[in-house]
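ok trying again, last paste got cut off:
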Amino acid sequence: MKKQLLFYLIIFCALVISKESYSQNWQRVGSGLPSHFANSNNEIIEFNGNMYSVGYVYDGISTYTPKVFMLSGGTWSEVGSGFTTTTTAGVYNIKAITEFNAELYIGGNFIMNNGVDAEFYDVAKWDNLNSRWVPVGDGTGDGVVNELTVFNSKLYAGGDFGDLGAAGTNNIAVFDGTSWGTVGTGMSIEAVALEDPDQISSMVVYN
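nice, full thing came through this time. structure:
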């Protein structure tokens, strides 16, 4: 009986030590991220061994600017530039980021001037060779891309838009790596309330 009791006591102590050894607390991840970015961080992903975060930054005075940040070596740094600023919170915003065909794509409600291409909107791809954001098709013009999801080797965009690179996409579109196309007849979503916009806010791959 004593041997059995001693055995259970050893097991219990081992479990307690194990629990204490693996207990963790939340900690700040990296340095250099603007404090006013925290409240607008919309999505975080891992890509090529680095962490990326998207949203917008408030300068603490009057302007809001869409931003993409990358965490590498413990420090956050801005990825690219050229996003148009605004004086109204949430008007311009990067809402989605994903990897597609080993490249980085973002979506949202933004205007981009990269100094080379004509002004473009709402969807962009990172050109690593030239270190700038480049257009993906025609953008949405006056809409917003809320979500980007990869399914069956194609990139799907959902949001609130009429035409995304192809006529009649109607809130959801698919990109095959070259051009945008429709997904059926799109989706017409009835607003539940006046303050609730008719748009796709999220998508997921299931089965």
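cool. The two ends are 53 Å apart (CA to CA). The first strand starts at residue 43 and ends at 47.
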